[in-house]
Specification:
Belongs to the membrane-bound acyltransferase family. This protein is mainly α. It folds into 2 domains: about 150 residues, no CATH class; about 270 residues, no CATH class. It has 19 helices and no strands.
C-alpha cells in the first residue's frame, strides 16, 4: 500500500487513526498500541503476505537478544556480535546472495543456479533499525519494554518501508507519554500539511521528472541532453525521497509521534561532508555512530580516518543495493570526503560559491552511477556531460520540455528558504487549510500515474 494511493488516503489511514483514538479515549492504551501494531503489519503485508512471518521472526529474535543484552553480565560482546551477524546474514541472503552468485559464476565460469529471491520491502531499513537497537541495548541506552511495544517500534507503518531510521530510546517514550494520547488539533493540522507537501513533491515534481530522467539515461549522449538527464534525476530522487519523508513525518504527527528530520536542503551543501549532514540524515548518523566511530573514527591518526571514511561509505553504497553501481557510488562519496580532508589539511580555502559549485557538480556526476543500469550507460552519460560526444540536444530524448522546470528548481534551490520547513511552521488557520486543500486536490489530479517511491527498492 502506497502513501500516494486511494486505499491508503481514503480508507486505511482514516480507519487506523479513528479506531486508535477511540481506544485511547476509553483508556484502552494496550489495545490502542496492539491495534496500531496489527495495522502496521497489515500495511506491510499488503504487498506480500508471506513476508509477515519473516519480519515477525526478525522482531522476535532481536527482542530476545536485546533483552539478554540488557540483563546479561558476561559474554555481552559475544552476544552482540551474534545478534548483529544474524541480522547481516538475513539481509545478505535476501539482498545480496543472487548478486554474489552471479559474480562468482562470471568470475569462475561456474554455473551455480540463481536464487530468484523476491526482496522483502523495507528489509534494509528494519534491519538497520534493529541493529541500532542491539547496539544501544549493549550500551544500556534503552529501557525494557513489552513485546508489543517493541513490535510497534519496528513496524510503525509511517517509517517501516523507507525510514527514517529510528532509535528505540527516542521512540518508545513517545508512545508511553500520556499527553501523546490526546487528540491534538495542532498536530493534526501540521501533520496533514506535511503530508500534503510530501504528496505534492512526489506527484507533481518527482513523478514528472521521472519520465525525462528515464528517457535521458536510456538515450542521452550529447552535452545538453546528458546534463538534462542528470539534473532530472538529481531533483527526482530528492523530491521523491524527501516527499516520502515529509509524508511519513506528517502521518506520525497525526498520532502525536515525532519522527526525526531526514533532509535539510542537501543541494545547498558546500562540501561532500556537509551534503551528508543534510541528505538522508538518519542514515548518515547510523553510518557515523555504528560503523565509522566503532572502526576508530579519527582517533587513530589522519590516514586511518581516511581509511575509515572509505570503508564506511562503501558499506553505505552496498546497503543501497546489490549492484556494482552502488558500490562505485559509495566509493566515490568516500573518496570525495577523503580528498576534502586532504585539501583541508594542506590546501588553501576556496570561496564558498566555488565550494558549492564543485559539490553540486560532484553530486550530479555520482548520481549517474546511482541511477545507471550498468557501467556502459554511466560512461555514456558522463562522456556526454563532459561534452565528448557533441554539445547539442538530441531529438531522440525528448528532453527539451523539462528545461524550464529544471531552471525553476535550480533557482528555488539557490535563493529560496527551505520550503518544507517554512510551510510546516504555518499557523493553523483558514489560509493554511486552503493551501493544504489546494496542494491535495492538485496532487489528486495526477493519481492516474501512481508510482512507487524510489527508496522502496532499497
Amino acid at each position: 500500500m502506497l502513501f500516494n494511493s486511494y486505499p491508503f488516503i481514503f480508507a486505511f489511514l482514516p480507519a487506523v487513526l479513528l479506531i486508535y483514538f477511540i481506544f485511547v479515549k476509553y483508556r484502552c492504551f494496550f489495545t490502542a498500541k496492539l491495534w496500531l501494531a496489527l495495522s502496521s503489519l497489515f500495511f506491510y503485508g499488503w504487498w506480500n503476505l508471506k513476508y509477515i512471518p519473516l519480519i515477525l521472526l526478525s522482531i522476535l529474535f532481536n527482542y530476545i537478544v536485546g533483552r539478554r543484552l540488557l540483563s546479561a553480565i558476561s559474554f555481552r560482546k559475544l552476544l552482540l556480535f551474534f545478534g548483529i551477524s544474524a541480522n547481516v546474514l538475513l539481509l545478505g541472503y535476501y539482498k545480496y546472495a543472487g548478486f554474489l552468485i552471479d559474480n562468482w559464476n562470471g568470475l569462475t565460469g561456474s554455473n551455480l543456479p540463481a536464487l530468484h529471491l523476491l526482496l522483502p520491502l523495507g528489509i534494509s531499513f528494519f534491519t538497520f533499525t534493529q541493529i541500532a537497537y542491539l547496539v544501544d541495548a549493549y550500551r544500556r541506552q534503552v529501557q525494557e519494554y513489552s513485546m508489543i511495544n517493541y513490535v510497534l517500534f519496528v513496524t510503525f507503518f509511517p517509517h517501516l518501508i523507507a525510514g527514517p531510521i529510528l532509535h528505540h530510546k527516542d521512540m518508545m517514550p513517545q508512545f508511553e507519554r500520556l499527553r501523546n494520547k490526546v487528540w491534538n488539533w495542532n498536530n493534526v493540522m501540521s501533520g496533514s500539511l506535511l503530508f500534503c507537501i510530501g504528496l505534492s513533491k512526489k506527484m507533481l515534481i518527482a513523478d514528472t521528472l521521472a519520465g525525462y530522467a528515464g528517457s535521458g539515461f536510456a538515450n542521452a549522449a550529447q552535452f545538453m541532453d546528458s546534463w538534462i538527464a542528470a539534473l532530472s534525476y538529481t531533483f527526482q530522487i530528492y523530491y521523491d525521497f524527501s516527499g516520502y519523508t515529509d509524508m511519513a513525518i506528517g502521518i506520525a504527527l497525526l498520532f502525536n509521534i515525532r519522527l526525526p528530520q531526514n533532509f535539510n536542503s542537501p543541494y545547498r551543501a558546500t562540501s561532500i561532508q556537509d551534503f551528508w549532514r543534510r541528505w538522508h540524515i538518519t542514515l548518515s548518523q547510523f553510518l557515523r555512530d555504528y560503523i565509522y566511530i566503532p572502526l576508530g573514527g579519527g582517533r587513530r591518526g589522519f590516514w586511518t580516518a581516511i581509511r575509515n571514511v572509505l570503508i564506511t561509505f562503501i558499506i553505505g553504497g552496498i546497503w543501497h543495493g546489490a549492484s556494482w553501481m552502488f558500490i562505485i557510488w559509495g566509493l566515490l562519496h568516500g573518496g570525495g570526503q577523503a580528498v576534502e580532508r586532504i585539501w583541508k589539511r594542506w590546501g588553501k580555502p576556496l570561496p564558498a560559491q566555488l565550494c558549492w559549485l564543485i559539490t553540486f557538480l560532484f553530486i550530479n556526476m555520482t548520481w549517474v552511477f546511482f541511477r545507471a543500469d550498468n557501467i556502459s550507460q554511466a560512461t555514456r552519460l558522463l562522456r556526454g556531460m563532459a561534452g565528448m560526444n557533441g554539445l547539442g540536444l538530441s531529438r531522440l530524448t525528448g528532453l527539451a520540455p523539462v528545461i524550464p522546470i529544471l531552471a525553476v528548481l535550480l533557482l528555488v534551490m539557490r535563493v529560496s528558504p527551505n520550503l518544507t520547513w517554512t510551510l510546516s511552521k504555518l499557523r493553523p488557520n483558514w489560509k493554511t487549510a486552503l493551501l493544504m486543500a489546494l496542494m491535495f486536490m492538485i496532487s489528486l489530479l495526477f493519481f492516474n500515474r501512481i508510482t512507487e517511491f524510489l527508496y522502496f527498492n532499497f
